[in-house]
Amino acid sequence: MTYLLEARGLTRKFGGVVALDNLDLTVVPNEIIGLIGPNGSGKTTFFNVVTGIYGAHGGSVTFDGADITRASSRAVYHAGVSRTFQRSRLSLPLSIFDNIMIGNHKRLNQGLWFNLVRRGEFKREFEVNYAAARTLIEVFEPRLAERMFEPVAGLPMIDRRRIEICRALISQPKLLLLDEPSAGMTHDETKELMDDILQVRDLNRNLTIVIVEHEMGLIERITDRCVVLNFGRKIAEGPYRQVAVDRQVQEAYLGVE
Amino acid sequence: MPEVKQEPQAPLLPGVVAVALSTAYLIALLAVEKQPLVIGLLAFGIVAVLVAHYMDWLDPVGRSFAEREGVLSAYAVLAACVVAAFFHDNHFVLLLFVTVLLYAVATLGLNIEFGYAGVLNFAGASFFGIGAYTSAVLNTYTAVPHLLVLLIGGTLAALIGSLLLLPVLRTRGHYAALVTIAFALLLKTFLEVNDVLGGPQGMQVKGMSILGWSFNDNFEIGKIEMSFYLNYFVISMLLLCGTFVLVRRLERSWIGLDLDAIRLDETAASCFGLDIARWKITAFVLGNFVIGLAGALFGMVGGFVAPNNYTFADSLIMVSILLLGGIGNPWGVVVATFIVVVLPEKLQTIQEYRFLLYALIVIVVLLFRPEGLLPRPVRRYFPGGRA
Amino acid sequence: MDVGLLSQYIMNGLMLGMMYTLVAVGFTLFFGVLDIIKFSHGDVLTVGAFTGLATYIGLRSVGVSSTPLLLLAVLVVAILAMAALGMLIARYLVLPLRSAPALNTLLITLMLGTVLREMVRLFYPQGANPKPFPALLPTDSINLGQFNLRLDNAIMLAAGVTIIVGLRLLLNRTKLGLAIRAVAQDEETARTMGINFTAIVLITFAIGSALAAIGGVMNGLYYNEINFGMGLLLGVIGFSAAIIGGLGSIYGAILGGFLFAALQTIGAVALPFASAYKDVFAFTVVIALMAWRPTGLIQEKISERV
Predict the structure, then answer these.
(1) Residue A109: its chain B contacts at CB < 8 A?
(2) Per-residue pLDDT tens for B276-311?
(3) Are residues B71 and B191 in the same domain?
(4) A120: exposed, middle or buried (C-beta count within 10 Å: 0-12, 13-18, 19+)?
(5) What is the pTM of this model?
(6) FRET label pair with A215: which of A136, B360, C34, C126, CA 20 to 30 Å apart?
(7) Given B249, B261, B271, which is nearest A73 (Cβ)?
(8) Which of A54, A47, A171 is nearest to A103 (CA)?
């Protein structure tokens, strides 16, 4: 079986704390994986190591056949991995359109000459991408498509999440890493957001998703498979209904020794 | 392809009226010399702006500038020419005007570094000085054509600035600030102790001359005697227009977006593939080039360079202009440069206190209006038309 | 090189190191409690030195002539005035900007430095010129073979060491010190433990600024001259020293201060012909060190903070 993402023996320490402990985690194309576990179990660290924000202290990560263990964040993005952040990291003074375009970096011509001098060509490229951004955000919230050039700063949390997810999706990545999309939102808002994400996935059958989430209803509804972490180690793996009744998992969540 | 909603275009008139009134006011301010008149005129100006603000007359002006920028820029250039023509034989006013233009160019350069990429540079006056000293040395000892001298001045500022790139790139925020402050102090001390460059007394700079046309001679149009500073006005105006267009296009491109993204959140930017080092280097080198270019021309305009004109305090003046005008807004830079440069020249009592005054003003701005007089609007790639 | 000259260089290096350390410790304290850099710190030192000088002139003009009394008055007034100034700065300029971008704090303290510097230049009588600073310490010297120890230098060094040790004891052995360290460690937790955050910040700024006042007076006593721009140089060097040592660590600040002084002294010994370039050399070292070790020799996160 070919894996889209394959982590083997992945280890990361912070001082004396082992945040990821010899972790094996594999993702096959087109599946949706839930990454769950108590606070501090290493879920976000896993995202940060995969996306090159932190280096690994041991083990390897392979994505789409290429070793990305030591790759920079840039290289990981260019390979086709996009992510959202637990605490929304939009550029607040910038417009909705600008924020989405930040995620579209690899499909925009970054040449100095092109940008400063070839304004006609630039305008054509701008229009193509403007249309793409509108089409994408209309899936989530048509209202926002009419406000593309308003700053993000004044928008409510749910809209910011939508924009953040559009920023991650606009470049048509192969793998999307969602870090607690429900944080700061109500149950209904989260449900709506996930439905929208699934709708986008229906349009783009190549999209694989790893989602870190505490909202178990959500995990149960959308994931094909779950991986449960505790103290940086994998303690269970399988469909949600199976891991939910796992004794080790219950102990991890309840804090039983 | 979905169309951008077509809004009715903002009318041109408020912008034109604003440009016309500003021009008239500027001419009056530059013409009066008696101190009570100057003070009265300044007070009138402040009150007029406040009244306009409270009557909501400034919003239509802002809208017409936002959407009809091309036309209004042309009017603004025309207005500058009218002011220059009005004072065609007045050395003092024209020199002051040229100083404003070149300081605006330099601050636009600083704006690329500081306002867009977020690369701190507290040595703006030093790079300005590098340009000026380049003119002094090359015009004195070589026969390099003077337009080329300007380019060399900019290039040298960019190159010497590159020496700071490693520490500036490896550090963030306050650390980078320290590096550039140290450089500002270093350069001034170096110029003072170095005899080749004239030491504390500085050097004379030969005036500009292009294809035999000497910029330092008065000339006549028809029977009317013109100040030689009109030559410098023309070239400085060209330089300002060029820089303005450069900064505008930069901002309204993917590169402008990259610079903003890096300034606002480096970690997120690198997760979306942005090459942080590349854009910081581009901004720093380009910014210093522009500052050096303006400095090289300013050296020839003033005819004289000395270490005391390029101190850390002068660098802070450039930062003050940027903060006062509104970081990232080139119109803000131009307006604030007029205020900051013209005020102490007209109001002689504050000349001595200008560093103190501007430092205080910036403190007040930071506490109560951190976005500056003319806050930078959200980026529109093609304002006026669609989007 | 003869022993006498060498001893002079060493003494000079130690004195420089002590003054840099006093400034660097201030930077480290401020960074510890608030994670900010206060760029006006060097200029507070200038104001402290001028306050001391003004006190001296004022007391002399009313007939006080006892040197020990004058020295005491100069120190006490300078220290109290700068402590008060430090608290005012923290209260009205630094704390209000807590929620704004860090850049704004940097800019506001940078501009405040200009305000202080310019105020001294413009409003102190003939403030633009260097001012002679009185010799308030005994200037006798003791001959130890070829080594010529000046008593005033020895006293200043001893005083400096006492102050640093005292600060260390204050931070490690008192409840106040515990509170400061708690705030430096984790503001939120410190608050929940009932520590008055604002008060601790103000006290820390008072302590740091008082150290700058001592540094300023010491500078005047050592060089017998002060000028309005002295703090800018000392501030930049003190800040570099704090960074080299690893911001947030007092030992780092001491290490950085003396390391910097050592580099400067070695530079002066090795390149005597270039004495005019001594400040150029100092700033080059600052820039080179930033390029080499942007986060300092002792890494921020490992070193104990404050």
Answers:
(1) 254
(2) 999 999 999 999 999 999 999 999 998 899 999 998
(3) no
(4) exposed
(5) 0.90
(6) A136
(7) B271
(8) A171
